[in-house]
Amino acid sequence: MYEKIFLKKEKLKNSPHPWFFSGALTKSYDNLGIGAIVDLYYKEKFISRGYYNNKTSIAYRVLTYNENEEINKEFFIQKLKKSQELIKKVVNSSKTNAYRLVFGENSYLPGLIIDRYDDYFVIQLHTAGMENLKSVIKDAIVELFSPKAIINKSNIQARKIEGLKPYEEVLYGEISNSKIIKENNILFEIDFENSQKTGTFLDQRENRLIVQKYFKNGKLLNMFGYNGGFNLYLKDCENCKSINLDVSEKALLQYQKNLKLNKMNEENHSFLKADIFKMVADNYQFEDKFDAIVLDPPALAKNVKNKKRAVSQYINLNKFALRNLKSGGLLFSASCTSVVKQEDYEFAIYQAALRENCQISILEKRFNSTDHPMNPFFPEGIYLKFYVIYKY
Ligand SMILES: C[S@@+](CC[C@H](N)C(=O)[O-])C[C@H]1O[C@@H](n2cnc3c(N)ncnc32)[C@H](O)[C@@H]1O
Predict the structure, then answer these.
(1) Which residue's alpha carbon is nearest to atom 19 within ligand 1?
(2) Vertex 203 angle, CA 178 and 268, to 5°
(3) How far is it, in rounded angstroms, from Cα 58 to Cα 105?
């Protein structure tokens, strides 16, 4: 038996949005520990089971609509089995052994990320509810996958809203210094301790194939390139050269290791350490223009209050890219800011082209890789946009 919390107004049973704000509840349930598993009721009627936190405006998140389903190891085992079935449909395991297994609300497990790096699993617990369930989540992963290690990289600032501290730990097993994984047969060394995100940016995997498909000849600039994912996909292109441009020394060191791992020539695939926002502000211009540019900045706004500023930064970044792109070149332009919607990003691209006085056509509009599924009832989860643009 779980404690009950009550809705002020009746919502449709199976109302599919996973969040309920504190104002939707009859009161603040201050006697419940943060992240407690509770049953949501309207009067006598069971609505759903989930977890509650009186410290946050998103007070309750749904885990199940089934009154008979207990939230325990078995619950997670069943969820993980379903996620693994999805993965079988979207990932070719003979070429790729790193992918997102659980994507929070998008996988109907609010606040939980599980990324798989071969026999290493990395989890992130974004909420108090998931933090409380850490041990059953670990047991479920161990039972189903017999991993070498589970790393908890809950070093995310967003936890503070939940009354939790960011932290990292090895939750299970032992880790070696680094792990080599393959993504479409391209090798990446993952240094979990020094990495951004859970290890690498798995969400761009399918877009990297798109760059590989379109770009066959010339020089590519990878702006905000991290460990060089987009550069590495040029491995088999004899006529391709590239530069990885990023501000992070650790990321660029990792890139150099990745080049060696993939037996790529460091003269053809170089790097540049620089602050791109400063280059943009300084109107920096490369000596030679590029045949292709990948633009994939970090998220530029956390909430709608900062959206206008983010759109203006996107205009400047795209303008910079178009200016340094040859006529006949390709711009692969991405935004991972979830509050900047598709139409906002398109506005930024069009404004950039107008202000740069050049003509462009959009060849493809894409999203994140399919192991990062989108929950149609959770628009907040749609974040990555990726455009293939031709410059006349
Ligand atoms: C979204 S990630 C890029 C992911 C990469 N495109 C990939 O596919 O793996 C953003 C990158 O921007 C870099 N970055 C952040 N601020 C920067 C700045 N001011 N100048 C250059 N790079 C920056 C980060 O180090 C990070 O590698």
Answers:
(1) 275
(2) 65
(3) 13
Quick check: CB of 225 below 6 Å from ligand 1?
Answer: yes
Provide the whole-model pTM.
Answer: 0.96
Which residue, judged by its Cα, is nearest atom 10 of ligand 1?
Answer: 298
Closest among 88, 76, 94, 153 to 120, alpha carbons compared: 153
Q: Which atom of ligand 1 is nearest to the CA of 279?
A: 20
Measured between alpha carbons, how far is 262 from 207 in angstroms, rounded to an integer?
19
Whether 335 is in the pocket of ligand 1, judged by its Cβ within 6 Å, is no
C-alpha of residue 327 to centroid of ligand 1, in Å: 26
pLDDT by residue for the chain (392 residues), tens only, comes to 899 999 998 876 556 899 999 999 999 999 999 999 999 999 999 999 999 999 999 999 999 999 999 999 999 999 999 999 999 999 999 999 999 999 999 999 999 999 999 999 999 999 999 999 999 999 999 999 999 999 999 999 989 999 999 999 999 999 987 899 999 999 999 999 888 999 999 999 999 999 999 999 999 999 999 999 999 999 999 999 999 999 999 999 999 999 999 999 999 999 999 999 999 999 999 999 999 999 999 999 999 999 999 999 999 999 999 999 999 999 999 999 999 999 999 999 999 999 999 999 999 999 999 999 999 999 999 999 999 999 99
For residues 145 and 153, the answer to whether their CB atoms sit within 8 Å is no
Q: Which domains does the chain have, with CATH numbers?
A: 3-64 (2.30.130.10), 73-179 (3.30.750.80), 201-391 (3.40.50.150)
Q: Whose CA is nearest to atom 6 of ligand 1?
A: 225
Cα dihedral 184/262/265/290 (nearest 10)? 30
How far apart are the two ends of the chain, measured CA to CA in Å?
65
Residue 245 Cα to ligand 1 midpoint, Å, equals 8
Tokens 């900045």 sit at which residue? Answer: 297
For 79, 91, 153, the CA distances from 46, given in Å and listed in that order, are 22, 38, 35
